[in-house]
């Protein structure tokens, strides 16, 4: 379903070009659980952003569900992000002035879902993550683990095919980190494709497939078939 | 994305930063209020002048001796002096069917005395019809009687102020006063009637025109007041006056006819121009408010960079972001305009109380214009920040903490 061929992403820093991704080829099938690992600056986030259509490659072809994404306009890419992709970030990125419920509601507002339906879906999503008594709290009134759970509820509320998580436990203590990972793995067992960037080898081992990046190149891929 | 949701989201964003929002609303409100109030003041001045003119008498024409430059025609040859207007000239004008009333006027200054009290005042020689033409009213007694204007009766009518100064609280009716070297009997006292274009009607004594001419030893009239038969009759009356006088003055156009309408429309044009320019100056404060909105929205965009990146990551289009930020500016300027209108009404009310004689009312067009200009300013100055937000690169926006 995710199919990257000869992807290259360069950045111009001063008069030097930094090759964040260099000739990357990878295929991820529906329902896979992939951990992307590698040293800092090896291009993990860049790869995730390209898969999530937040960034465009300079070269190469990325097809998602047999759709050549480089041919899509910005608005079409936004629509794909809205309906097929959920992001979970290291720094949660909740809107500080909005409550948990309102944060989770945001993607449905953008998609134009009916208000009545929105309310019931938000309630269901938050209570399935054990946050039914935190719906009216603002992010600064929540613990890190709770914030990340709200972020996961927001990422899954549109029932996407893919969850992209960039170091989702990077800002959490061990226990809440494990909690968050378990929630993400639950989603995977329900059929969602889970792609997660992590520094933690223990977390990497839990994935069914591990992709190692070094200097913008895939150096090892356990599940490449 | 539904428009109701856009408004709700923007509203929440605005209420999330109350101080900033209140300041922007205040700036907008002051701009809108000053446009409305200043327009109301200008409009009030216009109405004030119009009312003053109306109180002068309706359908009024004033005939002056001498040609004014504005009537055109060749300049007078050999420095000839204009012919005087005489009482006969005045009487001949009444033959025109478009003229309803005529009052000849002679003005001079003479001492008026009663017993040992003595005052120098304006003496107005005229006829009975002045009463109707100038909308005068009596406090006591009656006005100059109708009758042959060329007969100089020894009667006079006093302004209320003059009466008070000469007679105090005593009755003046029937008393003989001395004006210059002649004696006149007081037959009436004018009611208090404010100022009317320069001449204080409280401080005059009115005598029959022939008596005044005898008093000042002249046959010339100061001017002739005419009342036309109606608004449409004014131009006809003017033509008739010019034709009659030309005939009587051996073909010379040596009088000037001022119509009240012409005066009024000149003043009207001047005052409308003044109102507009004052409103224009006030509009500058609106654009200052607009620039303030732009600045604050630019700050908001940079403060909320990660939020914008996040919205893009969860599938917001550029146009969504644009709409959200434009809605914020629009809401700000609308609320500001609303408060501005309220502020303007309060100011209006206060001014109306402080100056009850001055008619202050904001015209509806000023209200509509101020509110729509406010909304327009908000949107125009909101475009730049909103576009900056819409164009943000989500990856960079999110990598900032
Ligand atoms: N916007 C950018 N401008 C310039 N260089 C960039 C930009 N984004 C990324 N890079 C460079 O591309 C390379 C890969 O960056 P990336 O963020 O993908 O690394 P990463 O593997 O996620 O690292 P980390 O583990 O520290 O998050 C780095 O050398 C980085 O400096
Ligand atoms: Mg990274």
Indicate the overall shape of chain B: elongated
Hey, which two chains have the biggest interface? A-B, 30 and 25 residues
Number of domains of chain B: 2
Estimate what percentage of residues of chain B fall within beta strands: 15-25%
Shape of chain A: globular
Query: What's the overall average pLDDT of chain A, rounded?
Result: 94
Classified in CATH, the superfamily of chain A is P-loop containing nucleotide triphosphate hydrolases
- Distance between termini of chain B? 27 Å
Number of extended strands of chain B = 12
Radius of gyration of chain B over all CA atoms, rounded: 34 Å
What are the bound molecules?
Answer: adenosine-5'-triphosphate, magnesium ion
- Walk across the major sheet of chain A and give the strand order: 6-7-8-3-9-10
Which CATH architecture of chain A? 3-Layer(aba) Sandwich
The structural class of chain B is alpha+beta
List the domain count of chain A as a whole number: 1
Strand order of the largest sheet of chain B: 2-3-10-5-7-6
What is the CATH topology assignment of chain A?
Rossmann fold
Oligomeric nature of the chains: heterodimer
What is the beta-strand fraction of chain A?
A: 25-35%
């Amino acid at each position: 379903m995710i199919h990257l061929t000869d992807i290259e992403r360069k950045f111009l820093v001063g008069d030097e070009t930094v090759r964040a991704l260099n000739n990357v080829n990878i295929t991820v099938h529906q329902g896979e659980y992939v951990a992307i690992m590698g040293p800092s600056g090896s291009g993990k986030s860049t790869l995730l952003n390209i898969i999530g259509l937040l960034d465009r490659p300079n070269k190469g072809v990325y097809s998602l569900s047999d759709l050549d994404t480089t041919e899509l306009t910005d608005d079409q890419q936004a629509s794909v992000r809205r309906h097929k992709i959920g992001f979970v970030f290291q720094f949660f990125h909740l809107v500080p002035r909005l409550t948990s419920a309102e944060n989770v509601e945001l993607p449905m507002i953008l998609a134009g879902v009916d208000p009545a339906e929105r309310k019931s879906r938000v309630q269901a999503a938050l209570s399935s993550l054990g946050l039914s008594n935190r719906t009216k709290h603002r992010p600064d009134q929540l613990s890190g683990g709770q914030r990340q759970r709200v972020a996961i509820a927001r990422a899954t509320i549109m029932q996407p095919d893919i969850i992209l998580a960039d170091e989702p436990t990077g800002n959490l203590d061990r226990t809440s980190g494990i909690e968050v990972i378990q929630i993400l793995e639950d989603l995977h067992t329900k059929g969602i494709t889970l792609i997660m960037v992590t520094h933690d080898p223990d977390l990497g081992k839990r994935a069914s497939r591990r992709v190692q990046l070094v200097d913008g190149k895939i150096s090892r891929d356990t599940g490449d078939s | 994305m539904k428009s109701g949701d856009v408004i709700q989201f923007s509203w929440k964003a605005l209420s999330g930063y109350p101080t900033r929002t209140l300041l922007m609303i205040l700036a907008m409100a002051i701009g809108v209020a000053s446009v409305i109030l200043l327009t109301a003041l200008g409009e009030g001045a216009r109405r004030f002048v119009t009312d003053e003119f109306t109180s002068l008498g309706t359908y009024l024409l004033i005939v002056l001796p001498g040609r004014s430059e504005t009537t055109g025609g060749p300049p007078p040859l050999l420095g000839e002096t204009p012919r005087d207007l005489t009482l006969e000239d005045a009487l001949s004008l009444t033959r025109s069917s478009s003229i309803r009333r005529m009052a000849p006027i002679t003005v001079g200054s003479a001492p008026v005395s009663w017993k040992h009290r003595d005052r120098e005042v304006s003496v107005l020689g005229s006829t009975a019809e002045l009463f109707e033409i100038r909308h005068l009213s009596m406090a006591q007694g009656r006005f100059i009687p109708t009758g042959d204007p060329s007969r100089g009766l020894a009667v006079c009518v006093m302004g209320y102020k003059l009466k008070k100064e000469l007679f105090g609280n005593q009755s003046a009716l029937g008393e003989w006063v001395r004006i210059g070297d002649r004696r006149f009997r007081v037959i009436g006292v004018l009611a208090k009637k404010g100022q009317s274009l320069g001449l204080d009607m409280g401080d005059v004594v009115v005598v029959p025109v022939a008596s005044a001419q005898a008093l000042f030893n002249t046959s010339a009239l100061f001017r002739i007041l005419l009342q036309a038969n109606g608004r449409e009759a004014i131009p006809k009356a003017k033509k008739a006056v010019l034709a009659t006088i030309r005939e009587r003055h051996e073909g010379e156009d040596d009088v000037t006819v001022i119509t009240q309408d012409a005066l009024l429309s000149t003043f009207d044009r001047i005052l409308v121009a003044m109102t507009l320019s004052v409103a224009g100056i006030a509009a500058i404060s609106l654009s200052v408010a607009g620039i303030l909105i732009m600045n604050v929205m630019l700050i908001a965009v940079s403060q909320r960079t990660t939020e914008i990146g996040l919205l893009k990551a969860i599938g917001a289009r550029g146009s969504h972001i644009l709409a959200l930020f434009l809605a914020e500016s629009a809401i700000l300027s609308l609320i500001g305009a609303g408060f501005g209108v309220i502020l303007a009404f309060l100011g209006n009310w206060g001014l109306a109380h402080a100056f009850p004689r001055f008619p202050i009312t904001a015209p509806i067009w000023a209200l509509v214009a101020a509110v729509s200009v406010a909304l327009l300013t908000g949107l125009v100055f909101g475009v730049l920040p909103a576009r900056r937000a819409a164009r943000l690169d989500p990856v960079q926006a999110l990598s900032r903490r």
